[in-house]
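pinging the channel bc i need a second pair of eyes. not urgent but kinda urgent?? the chain im working w is below, pasted from the shared doc
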Amino acid sequence: MAIIAGVDEAGRGPLAGPVVASAVVLPEDHPIEGLRDSKKLTPKKREILYGKIYEFATAIGVGVVDEKEIDRTNILKATHKAMQMALGRLGVLPEKALVDGYALPNQVIPNEGIIGGDDKVDSIRAASIIAKVTRDRMMEHYDIIFPEYGFAKHKGYGTKTHIESLNEWKASPIHRRTFRPVMDYMPTLGWYRKHRRVGMLGEQLAALFLFNNGHVIRAMNVRCQPYGEIDIISEENDTLIFTEVKTISKKSLGTPEEKIDELKLSKLENAIEMYMVENEVKSDVRLDAITVTLGKGKPIIKHYKGVELD
């Protein structure tokens, strides 16, 4: 039988976050019932079908292109790249790809665009579901890092509440700067200083750094009175990681490393012990530190793994 891959994307229209594409090869006699355009399914039904597709598909590939590349090129080129990445990660070489919408340019694999394909072809329907669920899960993780925007609810689309959040909080590091109205809400470092949000920005940049390096962000700014606050709790390879973040801007004195002193580490040790007891943590744990230096150009982020506690 010919190996045919269905291809679709999720996230062309939102104001924030990546565009995600998926390519799926299904056996001709697959037993999956209820496949349809992901936008016409409830979140619960999408999750169920997501599991079924991974159970019965011959091959699945996923491509993710982040907001920075979307801004650097454009959303159409970013979408094409995500689709090409998805096809390249299938693990099998399809003889043909059926793409929802229009055919892919400059693609080695012969492909055909099918308008409304996510309502007509099962493999495209499956790709639509994989792309949508993958992206939604990413936006739910971003919601932990940037709770002020409500990403878990609107997934980055330009809803009324999202625009209101942009007006109050300005654009986050995962907003698409070339999209309107995001470009009208770009903050400056002076704005962060004025509103005393430099520390918050540093913690969010540190959490985003960890997420992009494979960590699952579990919580932010966890209060453990009377010992203070744990900035970031994440998980990597079955290890629970507590991260202390120090941020400075060029107007600050000293270095961020100098701000992590023995007194702070002692309080952190007590806070971590309290958290572990209250949450019955049984996994391995580690304390990390991240320093964030803000100024002109890109933030400078340094990650120190396994900070020693006395």
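so The longest strand covers residues 239-249. and The chain has a mean pLDDT of 93. — does that match what u expected or am i reading it wrong
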